[in-house]
Amino acid sequence: MAASPxxxxxxxxxxxxxxxxxxxxxxxxxxxxHPVEDVxxxxxxxxxxxxxxxxxxxxxxxxxxxxxxxAHRALAGLEQDGFSVSIITQNIDDLHERAGxxxxxxxxxxxLKARSSIDERMRYPLLKGGIELGQVCDKGSQLRPDxxxxxxxxxxxxxxxxxxxxxxxxxxxxxx
Length: 176
Fold this sequence. Notes:
- This is protein acetyllysine N-acetyltransferase.
- The structure is a single chain.
- 35% of the residues lie in helices and 20% in strands.
- The protein has a domain at 1-16 and 68-108 and 152-176: TPP-binding domain (Rossmann fold).
- The chain is of the alpha/beta class and 176 residues long.
- The protein has helices spanning 13-17, 30-33, 36-39, 42-47, 49-65, 70-80, 95-99, 157-165, and strands at residues 6-11, 84-89, 104-106, 109-116, 123-125, 143-147, 169-172.
- The chain has a four-stranded parallel β-sheet with strand order 3-2-1-7, with helices on both faces.
- The radius of gyration is 17 Å and the shape is globular.
């Protein structure tokens, strides 16, 4: 029996927009009301961690209310049909996983997790609620959103390149 084809799918904000998740760059997107330098950079975190936490706590609640849409379900359905599917997403939501996809690589992090401010390997699930000032990791540093901010490196980039190199077929929903 032949091995099932390995599909690698690259997704961006467009796939989750149908679920009601605001994109960052659309004309009514998140950056219209929140300048990047105020909520999505290491400097913003140093200047005003409460503002950054508030911004991401609001995004987190929006994502928790959202439901996977037909595109998320279709990709998960390919796995049920016997395909090996790896999803590389720029999205920080968990809609692929909730739809049933099992192999999802989050290039820009996962909003439903927190991480240590001093050791990015220390991650903690946020089953409910958000992150508050004073919540610390096991090493005692403030927890922050587990997302890649502007000016930070993408730690899983090499993993994404490896997945693409092993693919039998690649597809991207990201706009150019």
